[in-house]
Amino acid sequence: MTSKTSDSIHPKVVEASSENIHLAAILLREAHVIGIPTETVYGLGGLISSDLAVSKIFAVKERPRFDPLIVHIPASIEKSLENLSRRRWIAAHAIDPADRTAIEKLMQAFWPGPLTLVLPKHPNVSDLVTSGLGSVALRMPAHPVFQALLQAVDEGIAAPSANRFGRISPVTASDVASELGDRVSLILDGGRSSIGVESTVLGYVEKKGFLLLRPGGLPREEIEATLGEKLDTITPTSRPEQVAAPGMLDSHYAPEKLSLRLARPIRSLSAGELKLVADHLRQHQPHLGMLSLLSPHGENAEAAVRFEAATGIRIARIELSRNENDLEAAQNLFSALRAFDLSPSTLLLIEPVERLSGLFLAIEDRLKRASRPLVF
Ligand code: TXA
Ligand code: MG
To answer: Ligand 1 mean position to 137 CA, how many Å?
Structure first.
């Protein structure tokens, strides 16, 4: 499922051996925060029972307190609402009996895995974790290292993605080191995250049902097929006070350099439109890094050549997936954004995602939040 990252030279990055997992569990119990691999992205973890650890998570990430954390739970437990209640994570009595079967079906179908369920919270879960909301986000990660750690501490671990707030999510231990290396006690290296985008966050509200709060590693179609109903979505906003899912602020996952997104693929732009785009881009910088989901062959290759000729700007193409495979594109997404920041390119141009099935929905969401729109 994972491959080791051999380029980790940071002293806090350690191999996820059983001794080091044991050490990580001790550190967690002493209210340290650490970098932990998951199948989606790396997390910055601390015990939910420790207000000190949870406060550190917010401080280390520079994350605003209004943006709640996901509680990660062991895979060894029985996947029922009654049991989640018994473990004092949720308040099952606040869930409409008519909806219980559907929620349990989702847990049984997709846990452990990239699905986060937002459910009415148990009073035992600290308000620090949930930012004072009446709900708690629960996820059972599939990564064996995270699971071994949960088994060792036998309680919930709060873990946002291990990046500074608003920055690109980490998919390797060395990404975590470059984001937060000086601020965490340890980073467990569990190889590259096998999915590459964060979990899908599904909200449940009594009497209203389910709401897709964040597209992610579990395709919405799979949830819809299990529920037998279409999901409503929430749209990103720039106004925190209106946000049902506080993490849905529209600027997020952003590279440090300028990134702009086209409304249409380059191959469909007319000569006049190309000229307008070129004029706009020239105001910024002469270099261009280009991120694309499309294969650099055929029509697209010709369009790129035309674009270079029309604009006089050199294009360095970053390809997310040669065959337009959604999982491969997701796996490459955040590394591509990170590589762009380190490259000589000064501007990133993003072509629109044309297909929104499977993981492409999450990829489109992250790319939108990483960039500003162009007219064409
Ligand atoms: O894949 C993932 O989910 C990763 C790994 C580490 O598990 N974690 C992650 O956490 O992406 P974070 O904190 O970067 O994103 C959590 C999202 C945020 O958008 C947050 O607002 C939302 O979940 N969330 C958490 N608790 C919530 C709640 N009670 N109600 C609504 N949204 C909630
Ligand atoms: Mg995040």
So the answer is: 7
